[in-house]
Design brief:
alpha/beta, Ribose 5-phosphate Isomerase B, Chain: A, 5-stranded parallel beta sheet, about 15% strand, globular
Amino acid sequence: MKIYLASDHAGFSLKKEIAAYLYKQGYEIEDCGDYAEDNNDDYPDFISVAAKKVSENPDSKAIVFGKSGSGEEIVANKFKNVRAILGFSAENVKLARQDNDANLLALGSQFVDEQKAIELVKVFLETPFSNEERHKRRIDKIKEIENG
């Protein structure tokens, strides 16, 4: 499974730490930017790249980083087939994977430190979708909304 990473300046350090963790775990990662800590960058420029890749590659996932994670989540959810969530607890991430088949995790560097981020990333990547009929039905309804 390929994992796309993206951040603005506020999430840049946390992205580097998570990239190192994922690399050690043997995951295939692709950094979609920003590639330097630039206080004048704009998160939509980088988050949209990662979200588009997830949209086009259904077996992939992405983890994106910003100050709050909220703007990053908003950008990502503009893309078809992307179900982005803001991670703040292991339980919220687990439920989003099990029930919603979330495929993009947004993290806010102001609210999660490296240790918490690793915990959330681990839950995100290791929790399978339940495949329960009611959850598949709801995801299909989301897809209908995306398709107009």
